[in-house]
Amino acid sequence: MKKTIIALAVAGFSFNAAAVDFTNAAPATTSQTFAQEMKFKGDTNTTAVLATVLKDTMGFDKAGSDVYLRVELDNGAKLVKNIAGDALVVGASVQGVGVDKPGFTVDSVGDTFVVFKGVNTVANTTAGVDAVASGDQFAPTALFVKVKNKSQVNVTVRKFVGSNDAFLGLKDVVASKSAPFVSFANALDVTVKQASDLLNVDVTKESAKFKGGVDTTNIFTAKVDVKKDSNKNAILKADGNPAVAATFAATNKWTLAGPFLKGATVAGKVITDANIATAIEFTPTAPSTYLVPADNKVEIPTGSFTAVWTPSDTVTADYDVAAQTFAPAFTLAKNGDTAEVDLVLKPNGAYKQFVRITNDSTVTAPVSIKVINDAGDSAVVQLANIAGQPAQLAAGASTTQLTVESIFAASGLALAGEGKLRLVVDANLPSIKAQSYVLSTDNNVLSSFN
To answer: Which domain holds residue 343?
Structure first.
């Protein structure tokens, strides 16, 4: 079973806010969290450094008594001597931190626990280290933990007054506290967000400019970032420092594919004959933009664009991360108009119904009609495919009175339910209108539905 070594490297009380603190009745915080993505490479892996303080108020019953702290980990984890995973040696000195700097030695070692002895004498043989006294803290500066897998590891610290009792862990417990110690969570956070101010292609400018006749629009923001853990603390990377964007973004690659306009500059890349049909490689900015030439007269292609993030081999050597696809990264659309006819009576039914479409703009363009039956099935009919209608509806022009039967026949759709329909008229026009009329059974009265 592969294991990994995580160091408990503590440099004083600067880490207390993000540590397991046994000074209080309950732990002050939960465990520190490591990146779920980091790879386990075997028992000698150097992996991570954990900045966690294990503290315990000594609270002796009488002056001069020694204290024994049994520190036990679950889920197959164990305390070890160094980053290489060597076992702790009985008798080795472990110095605490803080003002008093009490001295401890390793008293006994088990598979999942270590007992540390604190000697409560005024004369302490360790130079510069005070005797353990009531209120002192156990916060070792150089301990490591070997974890078996990426499941949470909990720590239990139990205080005893005798060595054998501490080793056996069965009786005479003066105090006992437990807390989460080591956990794992996904750190990588790759996002692509369409710009909130993305402009449509302006149909009043022959679709060669963006809305308002401008040459450029923001399109999206692509970003590699890192998450916080459930307590809003930093997730740690393999060396024990907080994971940052560069942890995963080092020499990574971003590409973008879509219906490009030749000569445009998209996400900082000029579109040429060589790359117009391929995915361009780009460097994210906040945000990326789409710029057309100032003298552009060609229609800007519309549609959806796909971005792909690919991590480097350097990153994947240490982290289990894979390429991510964002489809769509953004979508370019024209600022055309639609008009709906919500109630269309059954074709060839008791009543005759007509639809009149009007181009209420100064632009000439094709018009389409989406036909929807009662079951929600739909088909799109081009106006030009209805007998007697033009390929494009001229500026200010209207169609003849279109019968419901002619529209339905051109759709090829089957009736469903009660046989009624809905129509959605669509055009690359600033304004389009649709008027619906029903003829009375005596052929004398036309009633408007819209």
So the answer is: 337-448
Q: Is the pLDDT of residue 8 over 80?
A: no
More confident: 99 or 93: 93
The residue from 313, 332, 351 where one domain ends is: 332
- Among 76-90, 180-194, 253-267, 312-326, name the one with the lowest average pLDDT: 76-90
pLDDT at 7: 44
Residue 242, domain member (yes or no): no
In a domain, 312, yes or no: yes
Contact between 13 and 98 under an 8 Å Cβ cutoff? The reply is: yes
Burial 242-273 (b: 16+ CB within 10 A, else e): bbeeebbbeebebbbbbebbeebbbbebebee
Pick the closest to residue 82 from 38, 39, 46 (CA basis). Answer: 46
Q: Please state the pTM of the whole predicted model.
A: 0.71
